[in-house]
Design goal:
By secondary structure, the chain is of the alpha+beta class. Helix content is 34%, strand content 22%. The protein has a two-stranded parallel ribbon with strand order 1-2.
Amino acid sequence: MYTAQGFEYSWNGVIFAPDLVWSVKTVDDGTFDRLVRHVYKVLLTRGMVGTILFSTDPETRAKLRQLTSGTRTAPI
């Protein structure tokens, strides 16, 4: 389930729920792209100034830190 109220706004926050974790792959690439990646892409591209990310899964949080190194980040 996701929601984006309005089209674009200054700041955005995205919480990665248990439906998207780094270590588990239970569907094929096409299904994953259609069901999950598109939803998060919509949410991740709404913030005009920035987007704050959080994952409920510790391993996914660590991977997000690694992937966003070199960008301005706030400590979790």
